């Protein structure tokens, strides 16, 4: 039986990255080769030296939206609201969110423009709001009044909102809806992508709109249900074809980040027990919770960051290490990273597991 206590560790506060490396690919790189049990330290711009050639990188092309708001209550007091735009689907009337203080159904929370969100109901820690404006107008309001929802462990941020919207965003970001970034992809630059292309390291994109399923704390109930909060994914026909062609040719598939990994594994299909695994073109919700032991169907490695203790992300990475029969588990690797003063979390350094 897995215990979350097995995924706890102490991180000196000075190792939490409060701002990204500049340029992006100047972040440090921690490489772990599971076959040789060798650990290498480098700079992220040199990641091509450690990736198999050829290989296929799979990126998550979701885009972070400025979904954090400071609205006014009818009494004039301020309230912080985080709207779960990743779950706002076509046809939905109400939108889910979380707040930083007590509110009751029927309360109205006002934008500076005069538009408002009315509290419809509460379900556990989540509230459901009815906007007074159309869906299109709500998106425009977020662009004007919302702020980038960086994680709460990033303290003392001095970056302007304009800078944050650029820095807390992958250069491949395309489809807006996420309330957190797929942070492993933040290290990539156009220069690095071009260099990898010349070395037969190709790429494709899938979409998973990041929300509570990625960053919400987990507990024993998640293990009982074997589920996380639902998030929506999309794999196009073209992307599925690239992934399946690589799989059939024996070309290693390396997802860039845990969200890309969860997307691939959520879309894995096998038409019969004698046929190989492939991914399907699909657009659907996923609540997949990957933890040891788990047999990965599609991915052969992973590019990721260093994650918060006791998180579903740590369990996913450890599941991959165990799947690849690595001699070291995730805590052993994190011990080395802490000793070597790697920077952790969303704006931190990168890790490659092959």
UniProtKB/TrEMBL annotation:
Pfam families (UniProt xref): Queuosine_synth
EC class name: transferase
One of the GO BP terms on file: tRNA queuosine(34) biosynthetic process
Record EC number: 2.4.99.17
Keywords: Cytoplasm, Isomerase, Queuosine biosynthesis, S-adenosyl-L-methionine, Transferase
Gene Ontology CC terms: cytoplasm
Subunit structure: Monomer.
Family: Belongs to the QueA family.
The protein's role, per its UniProt record: Transfers and isomerizes the ribose moiety from AdoMet to the 7-aminomethyl group of 7-deazaguanine (preQ1-tRNA) to give epoxyqueuosine (oQ-tRNA).
Protein name: S-adenosylmethionine:tRNA ribosyltransferase-isomerase
Classification of source organism: Bacteria, Candidatus Lloydiibacteriota
């Amino acid at each position: 039986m897995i215990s979350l206590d097995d995924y706890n560790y102490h991180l000196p506060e000075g190792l939490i990255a409060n701002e990204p490396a500049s340029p992006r690919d100047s972040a440090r790189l921690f490489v772990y080769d599971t076959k040789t049990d060798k650990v290498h330290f480098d700079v992220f711009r040199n990641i091509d030296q450690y990736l198999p050639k050829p290989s296929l990188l799979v990126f998550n092309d979701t885009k972070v939206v400025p979904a954090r708001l400071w609205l006014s209550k009818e009494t004039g007091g301020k309230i912080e609201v985080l709207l779960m735009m990743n779950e706002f689907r076509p046809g939905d009337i109400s939108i889910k969110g979380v707040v930083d203080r007590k509110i009751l159904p029927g309360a109205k929370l006002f934008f500076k423009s005069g538009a408002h969100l009315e509290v419809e109901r509460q379900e556990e820690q989540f509230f459901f709001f009815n906007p007074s404006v159309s869906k299109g107008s709500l998106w425009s309001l977020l662009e004007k009044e919302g702020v980038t929802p960086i994680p709460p462990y990033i303290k003392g941020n001095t970056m302007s909102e304009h800078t944050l919207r650029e820095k807390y965003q992958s250069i491949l970001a395309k489809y807006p809806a996420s309330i957190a970034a797929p942070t492993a992809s933040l290290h990539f630059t156009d220069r690095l992508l071009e260099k990898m292309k010349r070395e037969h390291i190709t790429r494709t994109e899938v979409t998973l709109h990041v929300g509570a399923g990625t960053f919400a704390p987990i507990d024993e109930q998640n293990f009982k249900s074997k589920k996380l909060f639902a998030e929506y994914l999309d794999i196009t026909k073209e992307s599925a074809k690239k992934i399946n062609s690589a799989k059939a040719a024996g070309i290693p598939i390396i997802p860039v980040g845990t969200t890309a990994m969860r997307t691939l594994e959520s879309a894995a299909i096998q038409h019969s027990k004698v046929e190989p695994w492939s991914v399907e073109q699909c657009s659907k919700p996923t609540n997949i919770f990957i933890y040891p032991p788990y047999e990965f169907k599609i991915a052969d490695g992973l590019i990721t960051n260093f994650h918060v203790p006791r998180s579903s992300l740590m369990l996913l990475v450890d599941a991959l290490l165990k799947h690849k029969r690595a001699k070291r588990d995730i805590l052993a690797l994190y011990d080395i990273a802490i000793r070597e003063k790697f920077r952790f979390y969303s704006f931190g350094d990168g890790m490659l597991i092959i």
